[in-house]
Structures are given as C-alpha cells and as structure tokens.
Write a structure and sequence with these properties.
Length: 177
C-alpha cells in the first residue's frame, strides 16, 4: 500500500446529514491528484489477478471510485443507480441506510453468469448498500468476488452484517473505529 496518509485527506463534518451523524467527506481526497491516485492504485492493486471482469459502483461516489478501478483492472464498469435513472429493464433492490432506506437498480443485461464482479464504493458504514449491491449481482447470475472501499466505519460493524450473507473479502484502505 502507498506511504501516503490517506486518512489525512478526510474531513469530518459533524451533524450532517442529520444531528448526531459525523459525515466523512472524501472530496479533499478525490480532488487531490496524489490522494486519488494512491487510493485507486491501492484498491486496484489489491484485486489484480483475481479474474475480475466487471466492477460495480453504487451511485454516486461509487462511480468516482469504481470507474477508475475498473479501468486499472481491465474490467468493465456497471453503475448501480437510484430508481428511474436507467433507461432499460432493471433489477431493483431496497436496503437500509444508517439513517433511512434507499433503493438501487442495475440494467438486467449489465452482468451475466460468466462475470466475476468486484463491488466498490467510497465507504462501508452499516453494510446495507454492500448487501444490496451483492444481491443485485446475484440476480444476474454473476459471481461476487470481493468488496473494496476507501473508508470503513468499523464502529458500525459492517463486516458482521455482510458476513450474514457473504463470505467474500472486504478490503478497506482506512478504518475508523
């Protein structure tokens, strides 16, 4: 992994999006050419050689992380979008957030049974988005190979939630205890 202190790029925003939540703002990291390159390289390097054919990223920050990781792995990128954003037939999956519920969709033809999929996002908090995206992958018959994140809110125990349904590796660059 890079010798760059990625955590130094993350800014805490208290009481956002609601009181009691400390939002971890990654925009300083992704606006830094050095920080962004280090994060993408570290995520990509970890999953090199694992036969990944597609990378799936959830709207919207998962797009920022997922597309360059897909490029580095020589894989395609699949966007998981909010309802009503994709023009063709979709699979949908609802999930719980740390402060509400949401839904993601992918095109039904985005993945197939021969695809080996890496799911990436900027962070993993409660694990709800991770499980939902993995369930979307399964609906297509594709295989989930692993999960990669810049930031993990370990104090919310997302690994325990994900482990209830998935035993694939969760790789994170920064853990917040």
């Amino acid at each position: 992994m890079s010798s760059i202190d990625l955590e130094s790029f993350i800014i805490d925003i208290p009481d956002y999006p609601e009181p009691g939540v400390i939002f971890k703002d990654i925009t300083p990291l992704i606006s830094s050419p050095v920080g962004l390159a280090a994060a993408i390289d570290a995520l990509s390097d970890h999953f090199l050689g694992k036969g990944i054919t597609k990378v799936l990223g959830a709207e919207a920050r998962g797009f920022i992380v997922g597309a360059p990781v897909a490029y580095r792995l020589g894989a395609g990128f699949v966007p998981a979008r909010k309802p009503g954003k994709l023009p063709r037939e979709v699979y949908s999956q609802q999930y719980a957030l740390e402060y509400g519920t949401d839904e993601l969709q992918i095109h039904k033809d985005a993945l197939g049974p021969d695809d080996r999929v890496l799911i990436v996002d900027d962070l993993i908090a409660t694990g709800g988005t991770t499980v939902a995206t993995a369930q979307l992958v399964e609906k297509t018959g594709a295989e989930v190979v692993g999960f990669g994140y810049i930031l993990e809110l370990a104090f919310l125990n997302p690994r325990d939630i994900v482990a209830q349904d998935y035993d694939q590796e969760i790789f994170t660059l920064i853990k917040v205890d």
